[in-house]
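quick one: phenylalanine bound model?
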Amino acid sequence: MIDKVKSIEKDALAQIKAVNSKDDILRIKGRYIGKNGVLTFCIKELKNLPKEKRGEVGRQINVAKKSIERELETAMRRFFKEERENLFKNALPLDITLPGRRPPLGRVHPITQVTDEIVDIFLGIGFRVAGGPEIEEDYYNFAALNMPKDHPARDMQDTFYIDTEKLLRTHTSPVQIRVMKNEKPPLRVIAPGTAYRRDSDVSHTPMFHQVEGFMVDNGVTFCHLKGVLTVFLHEFFGKATSVRFRPSFFPFTEPSAEVDIECVICEGKGCRVCKWSGWLEVLGAGMINPTVFDSVGYDTERFTGFAFGVGIERLAMLRFGINDIRLFFENDIRFLSQF
Ligand code: PHE
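yep, here:
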């Protein structure tokens, strides 16, 4: 019996040496130490041996089983190693000198770029930034700005009403009221933000951006208004750009002006963009109407101030040479990635 076990072991080890595949290994494993394997059969035979022989034969079987298992394991490992090496051998060569692929990067929206630039200019001359809600009360958007209930600017045509008291602000001027109600002069404030009007064509979108600005103190005059806005426009469009102030009307300023710059497209010669006038309107402005100071409780004998509103899209269109305002909000990546 002992010899039989030894010869089984010898056969098995010889076969293991000659394997060609992982399948071979599994087959050999089954043939010798599987449920119906020859060595397993010897274990079953043990009980038929005389008692005093069993111990020795049993030990011999164990030795054989251990060595077969060990060799199977070693052979298996060899195959795994070969497989791994082949994987690298057959892979395409890796050229680590090739440039990497950059993930696409977002950019700052042109409207945000222009807003930041405007804000920077005003921060540089001592203004600070304030804000207010886009869903605004009738009172702040109109009434406190000297636009009584029957004023044409309140027309349903222009304003998105939410209910009788709430609306989407039609300009950033309500921020003037909110700041002045909370704080006392001296004030030098700008308020960039969105505004909404029912309007849509090549130069109007229902949502657009403005920067409101105002200054209130003892002795603020129209000279300060002209000085501040001229500095701003020269910073933004260049010192050589001519600026002109034209009389106009806003309920919340008196006197009021609209501010034009020399047409940046034709340099004042006259073209389609400036409608052959040589000038482009870029700002509304004026001295804050004493009626507005009354609504916020300021002493109109002591304080005067000026206010202005800039259309950001207008400036961005001029700056980047864009002829359709709607391009800003279509979110076409080919358009936006140019800025
Ligand atoms: N709020 C005005 C508009 O939207 C602009 C403006 C602001 C005019 C401040 C004068 C003073 O047209």
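The CA atoms of residues 91 and 97 lie 17 Å apart.
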